[in-house]
Amino acid sequence: MSTIKEVVKEKYGEAALRVVKGQANGCCGASALDGCDPITSDLYNATEAGELPEKAVAASLGCGNPTALAELKAGETVLDLGSGGGIDVLLSAKRVGPTGKAYGLDMTDEMLALAEENKRKSGLTNVEFLKGEIENIPLPGNLVDVIISNCVINLSGDKDRVMQEAFRVLKPGGRFAVSDVVVRGEIPAEVRKSMELWVGCISGALEEMDYVKRLAKAGFDAIGIEPTRIYNIEDARQFLAGQGLDVDAIAPLVENKFMSAFVRAKKPAGCCAPGCCS
Fold first, then answer.
1. Intra-chain end-to-end CA distance of the chain, in Å
2. pTM of the model as a whole
3. pLDDT mean values, one per 10 residues, the chain (278 residues)
4. In this structure, which CATH number among 3.40.50.150, 1.20.272.10, 3.40.50.300, 3.90.150.10 belongs to the domain 4-266?
């Protein structure tokens, strides 16, 4: 049986190749790999989209726009976990300017190749894409000012490890500022069990208070979750369609329970617990 990680790599590799071939706009939901869904619509404004290579925008598989919410400053170092085609890395690089640096981390060869092409077309020189897994970030500790991510952490089968690694590579006082799909309350077991929906950023989503507890356990403070979009019953029907589920029965049970959210946290400025100081 395929692992979550293997399925994610396969599906997102396929998505990257489709973008390269000009076949489809990328989206976050499982059905989005065949088209588009409500989670990924209207995330970037016309100005942002117009500043970047077309294929960077087309390969966006996110559920939010973390670069618009993270309040990036000139000279900062930013790391995007699960950078895909590179849209958030390139936007971050523009915001931190030539004195800053934007890293993108992805485990999928096809996405990394697409990101490198988009970097070349953008002309930006303060960008670096790394191959690796978000559970084992290939960077030294205390390096990064801001960690962003766009609907990727919920794809991981070891979210505690992701948060520990994010904490490790952040500088004391560094910021965790990610967009993710978050759950409020209980959802049907059939949805949780679906691997395809996991790849689509749905069934792997953490419950809101569970997310907060896991961040706190990793060492973060100043934790907050701000909904940016709550999905209604028609949205639910769209992301459940084609999954072999009884949509009419399940859709009312998941209405308003899934949300795209901006998740904020900080590594304490005076932190010297394990993993804080070099």
1. 40
2. 0.78
3. 59 55 47 38 47 47 65 96 90 95 93 91 96 96 95 88 98 94 82 58 81 97 92 79 79 84 93 53
4. 3.40.50.150
